[in-house]
Amino acid sequence: MTTYEKIKELCENAGFSISSISKKIPGLSINKASITGWKNGSKPRPDKIKAIADYFGVTVEYLTNDEEVSVQTVQDNHGIIGHTHAPVTIINGSEKKLTEQELALLEIFSKLDVVKQAQLLAYAADLAK
Predict the structure, then answer these.
(1) Which residue, among 22, 47, 30, 26, has the nearest Cα to 112 in the 3D structure?
(2) From CA 49, how far away is CA 46, in angstroms rounded?
(3) Which SS3 state, helix, strand or coil, does residue 70 take?
(4) Correct CATH for 3-72 of 1.10.260.40, 1.10.10.10, 3.40.1080.10, 1.20.1420.30
(5) Most exposed residue of 75, 105, 113, 118, measured as fewest CB within 10 angstroms of its CB?
(6) Contact 31, 41 (CB under 8 A)
């Protein structure tokens, strides 16, 4: 599934068309030519993809990786979805409440741009070795 197809599916599941995404997401400015470009295989700019991911409560990685995964699978298996859900995550089918440290880390992570998020993930991976 392409980035365009995933964004289109998210929009449709939310009850609006991809062509009206700019009207639905506060502060997002996307013209129809950009959407056509996405449909033809170009990727949205990192700031746009981050805003879309944040709005729909999915990860940037979900939107940018062309894998065959449904939105529901992402929401069922990756934990916090949107800003109104309880601070829990699903790990191997079991619900786990997030600790204060995990919540603080998520808060910091959400404030970073895409490049800094990637750097933080790389650093965390090194620490975990």
Answers:
(1) 47
(2) 5
(3) coil
(4) 1.10.260.40
(5) 113
(6) no
